[in-house]
Amino acid sequence: MSARGLVGLTGRPRGPGRVAGWPVPALALQRTYLEAVARSGAVPVLLSPEHLDAAAADALIARLDALVLTGGPDVDPAQYGQERHSEVYGTDPVADAFESALVRAALEHAVPTLAICRGIQVLNVALGGTLHQHITGRDEIHAHGVPGVDNGSVLHEVLLDSGSRTASVMGTTGPMCSSHHHQALDRLGTGVTVVGRTSDGVVEAVEVEGAPQVVAVQWHPEDTAADDPSQQRLFDWLAREAVRPG
Hints:
alpha/beta
């Protein structure tokens, strides 16, 4: 027998009144993430951003069997030493520090990690990389959707390296993926390797040297996982990696 793995997912704080009928602050996450993890057989738990030092991050990661860095607002450009572009939105220094500490601890302790959209960006920045702060509207770049709005997603193909872990997990080198992002990876962090792009060259999937327990994607697999087995396989892989002997 094996116990069901406990998968921590990064939640998004919401201010007073942001949730209808709740005058107090709240913590939120789209149910599609939780449902994809639950379908995999693992147990999803929501993580609330807080100030963490390295020791506290280690202690939290030790209680989890896997980690999902979820989508969300932009990483503060100050995290990677750049001035803020006018289109940058929703930055939260507490969330940035919390998620960066968690992903470093997860790498240190080889905790299985799936990084999604903002998550791939947090991972890259935590390892010393940078971001393109606004790719929307560039002539050479296809539509990648609009974050944070109804019907803002765009379905497009991603071209995965045939020998990559991501392609092996998904069972395809050409998944159709739901995206809604206006930023993308620029300079790669230490050990970060590109394994997937769209035809316009935008980075869509990376892996980390020496960390076979990490898969990171720029698109949103949770959007279509209920109907697309290749997307659900990312969560199924995470659940298998998270299983504890018991």
